Give the backbone structure.
Amino acid sequence: MGQSEQEPLPPSDPRLPPGQRAQRGWPALHYGPVPRFKPLTWDLQVFGATASAEKHSWDFAAFSALPRTTVRADLHCVTKFSMLGNEWTGVPAAALLDLVPPEPGVTHVMVWAEYGYSANLRLADFADPRTIFATHRNGEPLTAEHGFPVRLIVPQLYAWKGPKWVRAIEYMRADRRGFWEERGYHNLADPWREQRYSYQEEPGEGPLR
Ligand SMILES: Nc1nc2c(c(=O)[nH]1)N[C@H]1C(S)=C(S)[C@@H](COP(=O)(O)O)O[C@H]1N2
Ligand SMILES: [Mo]
């Protein structure tokens, strides 16, 4: 067959950030083992610089009763696959900020998961109306490997900023690197700017060392 008979390349999907390709199926990607959900001892905590100076926690029943919403959002893994058009249902991060307000000096949050996984976020990214503690994708409860009972989705950032198996939110008065941010990944992680690796950080984009 000659070159002229080759099909033209399909136009690339405008939802794909630079360097990303659309993935069929839904791969599970994480560091370490999948934790087992223990409903009797599970809780979601908020600690650190809360306005009340007190820690707050929801057990599973209380968390399940929080206000819920649905957000349509893509998921971009830094390894270059993207999952387009997901419908995430869960509790908006902004609702948790309303229920447990941070003290005025808070600039960042650390979101903690089982086994010590963590991701740091600017307060503005956490407070974004599309940032959601998701319990369901496309109407189905998350499976264990995808973060059951709850994972964070931050649509505007690479997916490592969204811990699966979330257990706590720490309000911080200064920035601090999370799990992958300490291991060579970009502190801000905007896929549209291809902020993949920490060596790309400009002055002021990472915490002072
Ligand atoms: N607790 C935890 N959450 C995590 C990770 C992890 O290693 N541990 N990996 C992140 C990365 S790099 C990606 S791409 C997404 C993958 O989500 P998925 O397995 O549901 O596709 O989970 C994120 N959340
Ligand atoms: Mo990832």
